[in-house]
User: Which sequence fits this backbone?
């Protein structure tokens, strides 16, 4: 086990650079019944070496699914807006791409499925983020029973991670190769 979140984050982000390129989540997501049944999915625009979400967002929009994307506020909380299409996103804080219209922080509660970024997840559902707390606050607003998946690579699903009381668990890890169920409560 890692001695602290900071140590885990440093090690895992360093290991992520070993991936020769960021892999896409589309092929795995297309085979998932929960993705196919969802009318509204909260997702994110990948950046850097994160598993790629661009083609997944485009595919969902082409299918008529509404995609909610985060808007990072100055206090690091997240608002949400409907994705208009990749070409219509606007620059946001910290170099992020965001939808132009903010529906507010509670819009995530209207999602049928939430797919969030992570540095890693543990087999019992602990999600390690980048350390700003944005997603822990946002995930606390998700309607009970709504599945929450973390987007990671297969080798970023680890046996254990340090956790705090405010950390919000995830139900599964969506990787470029598979969906890994992390918590028994997920009925897949």
Assistant:
């Amino acid at each position: 086990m890692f001695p602290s979140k900071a140590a885990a984050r440093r090690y895992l982000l360093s290991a992520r650079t070993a991936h020769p390129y960021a892999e896409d989540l589309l092929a795995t997501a297309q085979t998932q019944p929960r993705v196919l049944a969802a009318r509204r999915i909260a997702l994110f625009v990948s950046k850097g070496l994160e598993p790629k979400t661009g083609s997944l967002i485009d595919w969902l929009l082409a299918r008529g699914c509404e995609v909610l994307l985060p808007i990072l506020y100055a206090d690091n909380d997240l608002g949400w807006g409907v994705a208009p299409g990749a070409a219509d996103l606007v620059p946001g804080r910290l170099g992020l791409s965001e939808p132009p219209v903010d529906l507010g922080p509670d819009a995530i509660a209207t999602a049928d499925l939430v797919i969030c970024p992570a540095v890693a997840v543990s087999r019992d559902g602990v999600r390690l983020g980048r350390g700003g707390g944005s997603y822990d606050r946002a995930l606390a607003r998700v309607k009970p029973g709504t599945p929450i998946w973390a987007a990671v690579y297969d080798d970023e699903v680890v046996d254990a991670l340090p956790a705090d009381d405010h950390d919000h668990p995830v139900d599964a890890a969506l990787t470029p190769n598979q969906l890994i169920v992390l918590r028994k409560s997920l009925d897949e």
User: Anything to note?
Assistant: The longest strand covers residues 66-72. Residues 5-16 form the longest helix (12 residues).
